[in-house]
Amino acid sequence: MSLRQYDARFLNEIAAAALTRDDVAMRAKRVAEMIREASGCFWVGIFEITENEASAVGWTGAEAPAFLRFPLTRGITRDVVRTRKSAVVNDVLKDSRYLVAFSATRSEVIAPVIDAVGNVVGTLEADADKVDAFGDADVQFLDQCASRILPLFARAAQV
What distance in Å separates the CA atoms of residue 142 and residue 96, rounded to the nearest whole number? Predict the structure, then answer.
């Protein structure tokens, strides 16, 4: 991924985009596009997490994911919700937890969006078309982005 835009100013722009008065889908799409452009990933998505399910809120890239909703009984997202920590899979073909959303995906990072009381209310997902696409700095960047998009999740605003 490209580190050219990983600075405080960019992270503040992400936070501001998540707070606009547009509807949630428009804000989520805008935030996803900003992160995709900054990172060089081919796809970025934002998912809301409920007790039993992950649901796509907004995404960007050439196409929608294969699963707009999926149960939290399987997949890498399940483990992110359980551990409250980002998951990095630098070769999805070697990870049995990976749910194939795009045939071009070779690496993926899923970062949790955590509310004020420690609940995972969403995830930020970034896909790359190369094996070993994500390093520590990339994961830190995506974690920082995830911490700034909490306003996209209505449940979190009520806490």
Answer: 23
End-to-end CA gap in the chain: 34
* 116-133 residue pLDDT tens: 999 999 999 999 999 999
pLDDT, tens digit, for every residue of 32-59?
Answer: 999 999 988 999 999 999 999 999 999 9
**Does residue 158 surpass a pLDDT of 50?**
no
Q: In order of start, what are the domains of the chain with their CATH numbers?
A: 8-157 (3.30.450.40)
Angle, in degrees to the nearest 10, between helices 24-39 and 136-148: 160
Residue at token pair 């990172």: 39
Element (H, E) at 10: helix 8-19
Using CA atoms, how far apart are residues 44 and 31, in angstroms rounded to an integer?
9
